[in-house]
Specification:
- The structure holds two protein chains of two kinds.
- By secondary structure, chain A is α/β, with parallel strands linked by helices.
- Chain A has 14 helices and ten strands.
- Chain B has one domain (6-294, 321-371): Rossmann fold, CATH 3.40.50.300.
- Helix content of chain B is 59%, strand content 12%.
- The chains are: A alpha/beta, B alpha/beta.
- The interface between A and B is large, with 72 and 64 residues.
Chain lengths: 311, 373
């Protein structure tokens, strides 16, 4: 499971994780549940239907299949699979019951979405598991607790019955050793705060945290000493003036002070990033860094990130 | 391509509502708070409704408690006769209040205890949007009645898609008025035989899959909510009408990145389509430089030269930073320009990026200055 605050790149990280597993020769299913078609955009393919479709092949013979789960389609599939309700299912859909149930009761909706992951994880093909791994591009940190706590959400609505049993089985899988939740963050105040809150919430629910992925990391060309000087606006102007001249750049007073001010802005930001990194490290979890891809994410960049994740 | 004059907007006494909208993470809430503070210090009686502020920003506004009521913000300069109140939306509480205000006490109690109502009011995807609009309607009514505010600044929920915020009230209303709920209500009203075979089949499936208790709960919920249905649509329509009036101004907040600009474009077009008054676009967190003539290429080459000849590593590093910054400046300018050419009639204003987050009134004043510079 990969979660993170909106804008931190959790879909990209989920895709890179799937690719990195495929690189190791594994058959991987990459699932999205938010109806955003984020995977199709990322892999530059037409919108994904409710069908598992191969979207990438790893050099080690592994493969990545992608699936966009839709709660309504999942409900109809579920009804058909367990109750053989082809026609009745359609009748439900026709009177608006499917729409109603999946909209008004988000807990039921989440059971259907996680239920599909549960099914894919356990599915057998040719005498072995159909997938070695399932990677879920999960809802954002703000919603991840209730989303994975399906049992609780459903308990309020259905005390007994098949949906309740299904929820119990899913919860069992989510809490077991096969599941890990990875949280993607940037070194900014809001995403870090949400990550800390989510870790606490998920652990209270007995769910297992995998790693914290710190995304879009930029390394400073300045050493720590210079960073400290830059923050205090005490970079040696004489050295900068001499250096600029040596490089053939007009070293006007204004140019020197502009460059020093830019270095200060940068140093202030690095300082904030470090504070945020300390807060992440204080969690005592495994932390993985992914570098910033300056020109945007394309196919090649995705494979690079996958490689970074592996190492 | 015109400049957006935000001082003129907040100083105009006919501006009564300002709505900030845009993608999440572009500084929408900060913009709303900064504009509210500036308007207050220029003499307006302002209330700011925020949805999900960053913790430190909330603290700076004194929003430590989620009590769903506007509270005066401390340390606001009231020399010009203005004032600033702020509140954070509690969506469940707002929903509960709607129920309590429009149903009999007995029915209200039934609704509030129903598990489907609890699910709907705390996690339905459109509830937050709907309740933000509901609260805006309430604040507007109160302002008209008591005169305690003459400007409402409202932040919209951090929806990923702009559509959500405009469509949510309609979605919630149509869900509550939908065919299926009507059908669920039917047995309570008339003989079962009037129901079609399809509905009977649907009911029996639901019973089998969900269990009888669930269906009973849904029916109780539907019956109890029945009296509120008409009200919901009517209120949603009223709020939308309020937003179309000329005393409302929409501000789209964006950052000069492709995703945020794409959302801003979409939002600007949608507002025009809906005949909502778009005041302009705030381009937030724009990277700036005082040395635009030193290009990224020259800066990089100079840094390389220094490194190769083993001279001032510090200067080389500073030049690398400048090169990086220039790349951003140029890229952002290109994207912003493309946006402006695509929306020639939409006024825009650029707000330079600050190195750190805003978390006090001084920071908000600084943003206010930058918004109107």
């Amino acid at each position: 499971m990969v979660t993170g605050k909106g804008g931190t790149g959790k879909t990209t990280v989920a895709a890179a994780m799937a690719l990195s597993l495929a690189d190791q020769g594994k058959r991987v299913l990459l699932v999205e549940v938010e109806g955003r078609q984020g995977l199709a955009q990322l892999f530059d393919v037409p919108p994904l239907p409710y069908v598992e479709r191969k979207i990438a092949v790893g050099p080690g013979g592994g493969e990545v299949f992608a699936l966009a789960v839709d709660a309504e389609a999942a409900l109809l599939e579920y009804l058909d699979m367990f109750y053989h309700l082809g026609r009745a299912g359609k009748a439900l859909d026709k009177v608006g019951a499917v729409d109603f149930v999946t909209t008004i009761a988000p807990g039921l909706r989440d059971v259907l979405l996680t239920g599909k992951v549960y099914e894919a994880t356990r599915r057998k093909a040719h005498g072995r598991l159909a997938y070695d791994a399932v990677v879920l591009d999960a809802p954002p940190t703000g919603r991840i607790g209730p989303f994975l706590n399906v049992n609780h959400e459903v308990a309020g609505l259905a005390k007994v019955g098949p949906i309740r049993n299904q929820a119990d089985a899913i919860m069992g899988m989510l809490r077991s050793d096969v599941t890990r939740i990875h949280l993607v963050t940037l070194l900014e105040e809001m995403p870090v705060q949400e990550t800390l809150d989510a870790v606490e919430q998920l652990e209270t629910l007995d769910l297992r945290i995998g790693s914290i992925v710190v995304n879009m990391v930029r390394h400073s060309p300045l050493d720590d000493e210079s960073l400290a000087l830059a923050v205090k606006e005490k970079l040696p102007t004489a050295e900068l003036t001499k250096g600029l001249r040596a490089a053939g750049i007009s070293a006007s007073k204004q140019m020197v002070s502009t460059l020093a001010a830019e270095a200060r802005d940068h140093a202030v930001r690095i300082g904030l990033e470090r504070e945020n990194r300390d807060r992440i490290d204080a969690l005592g979890k495994e932390v993985t860094e992914l570098g910033l891809v300056p020109d945007g994410i394309d196919h090649g960049a995705l494979f690079d990130l996958a490689e970074d994740l592996r190492s | 391509m015109t400049a957006l004059d935000l001082d003129a907007l907040i100083d105009d006494p006919t501006t009564r509502i300002i709505v900030t909208c845009g993608a999440g993470g572009v500084g929408k809430t900060t913009t709303a708070a900064a504009l509210g503070l500036r308007a207050a210090e220029r003499g307006r009686k302002v209330v700011v409704l925020t949805i999900d502020p960053a913790r430190r920003l909330a603290q700076s506004l004194g929003l430590t408690e989620l009590d769903n009521t506007p509270r005066a913000v401390k340390d606001v300069d009231g020399a010009n006769g203005g004032s600033l109140d702020a509140m954070m939306l509690d969506m469940k509480r707002t929903f509960d209040e709607v129920v309590l205000a429009h149903a009999t006490p007995e029915k209200a109690e039934q609704i509030l205890a129903n598990p489907f109502y609890v699910a709907l009011s705390s996690s339905f995807a459109g509830t937050q949007e709907y309740m933000a609009m509901e609260k805006l309607g309430q604040l507007h009514k109160q302002a008209e009645k008591t005169g305690e505010w003459d400007l409402i600044v409202v932040d919209t929920p951090p929806s990923r898609s702009a559509l959500d915020f405009l469509d949510a009230p309609e979605r919630l209303a149509s869900l509550l008025e939908g065919r299926f709920l009507r059908l669920l209500l039917a047995p309570a009203r008339g003989p079962l035989r009037l129901m079609s075979a399809g509905v009977n089949l649907a009911m029996s499936v639901m019973n089998k899959v969900l269990g009888a208790q669930v269906l009973t709960d849904v029916q109780t919920f539907a019956a109890a909510f029945d009296t509120l249905f008409g009200g919901f649509r009517e209120r949603a329509e009223k709020t939308v009408a309020l937003l179309r009036e000329p005393h409302t101004a929409f501000l789209v907040v964006a950052a000069p990145q492709n995703d945020a600009l794409r959302e801003a474009s979409y939002f600007a077009d949608r507002l025009r389509e809906e005949r909502m008054p778009l005041a302009g676009v705030v381009l937030n967190r724009v990277t700036t430089t005082h040395a635009p003539d030193l290009s990224a290429e020259r800066s990089l080459a100079a840094a390389e030269k220094l490194t190769d000849s083993d001279k001032s590593a510090l200067t080389a590093a500073v030049l690398l930073l400048h090169a990086d910054r220039m790349q951003q400046v140029v890229g952002e300018a290109k994207r912003a320009d493309r946006f402006r050419r695509g929306h020639r009639s939409v006024p825009t204003v650029d707000v330079p990026a600050l190195p750190d987050d805003v978390h006090d009134l001084a920071g908000l004043r600084q943003i206010g200055d930058l918004l109107t510079a």
